[in-house]
Amino acid sequence: MQPAPSATDAYNRALAAPAREQPDPLPLQIEGHIPADLHGGTWWGNGPGALSFGDPGAPWRVHPFDGSGFVRAVRFDADRGRPGARLQSRFVQTPVYTAEQQADALRYRGLGTLPPGGWWQRLRMPMGRSVANTCVLPWAGKLLALYEGAPPQALDPQTLCTLGPETFHGALGPDTAFLAHTRHDAARDLLIGLSPRILGPSVELTARAIDRAGHEVWRRTERLDRFSLYHDLAATPGYVVLLESSVDVSLPGVGMAMLGMRTILDAISFVERPARVLLIPRDSARPTQIFELDRPMLSVHHANAWEQDGPGGPRVHLLTCGLPSFKFGSEFGWRGPSLPFDAADTAGNCQNLYHITLDPASGRASTAVRAPLALDFPRIDPRLDGLPARHLYGVLTRLPTPDSPPFAALAHLDLADPCDPAGAGDRHARWLPGPGAFVGEPVPVPKRGAPLNGDAACWVLAMIYEPDQQRCRLCVFDGADIAAGPVGAVLLPQVPYGFHGCWEPAP
Questions:
Q1: What is the bridge-based pairing of β-strands 234-235 and 202-210?
Q2: How far is CA 103 from CA 96, 97, 381, 433, in A?
Q3: How many C-beta atoms lie closer than 10 Å to residue 156's C-beta?
Q4: What is the Cα–Cα distance from 464 to 429, expressed in whole angstroms?
Q5: Residue 100 backbone dihedrals phi, psi, to 5 degrees
Q6: Residue 174 DSSP SS3
Q7: What pLDDT is recorded for position 372?
């Protein structure tokens, strides 16, 4: 499937739009109706900025994974009963960002990007490209900008000024990785995170729980016998749930990356071996269990996990977006630092929503395709994280049409019975933003007083990127009727396509 040339051009302009800092709150124009449930709250977003360096006529681009974090905030307020919204945005002031802005050139090697020059020049450049560009989260009085390979960067939530690495009162060392994605245990008000450590062909995983004051209150470390990559985790009241994807690393490839001859992504490949799921009990007296699935899979984003009583004991369910194969180094249509992003190259990276059922008593697992849709960025009502959730929202990364662009539509899946892997009775709806526009990750916002799992339990916020108009819109949808389109929107200046966001309600 080949996107039309205009869609490919718009896709490049959406990904690589200029990121202009807005440290002082900028009043924004409002279209339509902004529900009162949003007043006093803040939508936070994060994603890569500074994707190009050097001559604007022939820029040296970086892989999106390597772009410095650009945090955006849309603060909703009400002045004399009238709705309002204000924008703030700033780069995360990591050492990488500071050094490269001063030089207007790459000074660090990245996951998917090699700086210009020969390998002997790159050999002198640091490899620790910590750019804090993936997720954003308010926790313990700070705003955390998260990235896989390092501790979070803490920001002042009012000014967005960077405060420095967050160690959770010393629980994380200066080089301790902390996954970009976390989970919130709402019943205990704990943040659940994971610290992976690569040990050659094996990996060490440390699961952690952080309380609202920022102190680590629980941890558990497991050592696995083979290499894998982790970007997301799930958590239930009793378990931390991890999916070990079907990937491997070439040690000679790592050696070439260390010498500056290849990238780290060049050393990683998808392999035809079954994926595995780890159940790490949050009760440290019980052993961790490993379940082998019946197929290879690369899983990047999980929708949810939960427990359910059944014959012979409880089951654990995991909904995840999985790929049956993958070519590393082509993410977001990346083709190298001197070429535009290739929207057509994203066509083979279409994920399905898989339903994995785990039986801890028997040690058996089953896997089924819950929705044969090219779905990513799955989100649920945040009050139901770790519990059965009926309504799921996501982005369709590809439509079944010859000229479909990536990030093509907003989707709503009504999982009539969340625990039924066959999905009998499931329904889905979608909304398309129009030609040359792209949908960002949906962020559900609970409606005040709405029942859990009700048809109209949430509003849904989603950034719509419209490069042809050189703008973005943060749109508000009624979660009960996504297909009807937004009930209201806030108009923003153009910003680069972002990765992940969250909602912070009014205090």
A1: unpaired
A2: 11, 10, 44, 38
A3: 13
A4: 18
A5: -80, -30
A6: coil
A7: 85
**64 neighbors 49 (Cβ within 8 angstroms):** no
In three-state secondary structure terms, 368 is strand
H or E stretch covering 251: helix 251-258
320 beta partners = 302, 354
N-term to C-term CA, the chain: 47
Distance from C-alpha of 144 to C-alpha of 151, rounded to nearest angstrom = 10
Please provide residue 184's backbone torsions phi and psi, each rounded to the nearest 5 degrees: -110, 120
pLDDT digits (tens, 9 = 90+) for 323-359: 999 989 889 989 999 888 888 765 556 789 999 999 9
Q: Find residue 430's DSSP bridge partners.
A: 411
- State the pLDDT at residue 202: 83
pLDDT of residue 182: 97
**DSSP code string of 10-77:** HHHHHHT-----EEEEEE-EEEE---GGGTT-EEEEE-EE--EES-TTS-EE--GGGSEEEEEEEEEE
Q: Tell me how far CA of residue 275 lies from CA of 80, 143, 245, 246, 315, in angstroms.
A: 56, 34, 5, 5, 19
Partners of 195 in beta bridges: 206
The mean per-residue pLDDT over the stretch 202-227 comes to 95
Strands 427-431 and 409-414: antiparallel
Residue 494, classed as helix, strand or coil, is coil
Tokens of 37: 């449930």
HSE-up (13 A, CA, CB side) for residue 96: 27
Query: What is the arithmetic mean of pLDDT over 241-267?
Result: 93
pLDDT of residue 490 exceeding 70: yes
pLDDT in tens, 75-89: 998 665 677 999 999
Which tokens hold the place of 176? 């301790």
CB atoms within 10 A of CB 80: 5
Helix, strand, or coil (residue 149): coil
Beta pairing partners, 52 = 61
CA distance 29 to 20: 18
- Return the number of other C-beta atoms located less than 10 Å from residue 429's C-beta: 15
- Asked if 212 and 140 count as a contact pair (C-beta separation under 8 A), the reply is yes
pLDDT given at position 32: 95
Residue type at 325?
S
Cα(297)–Cα(274) distance, rounded to whole angstroms? Answer: 7
pLDDT above 90 for 208: yes
Question: Which region, left, alpha or beta, applies to residue 8 given φ > 0 means left and ψ of -120 to 50 means alpha?
Answer: alpha
* Model pLDDT, residue 5: 53
- What is the strand order of the sheet 289-292 is part of? 234-235, 239-244, 276-281, 289-292
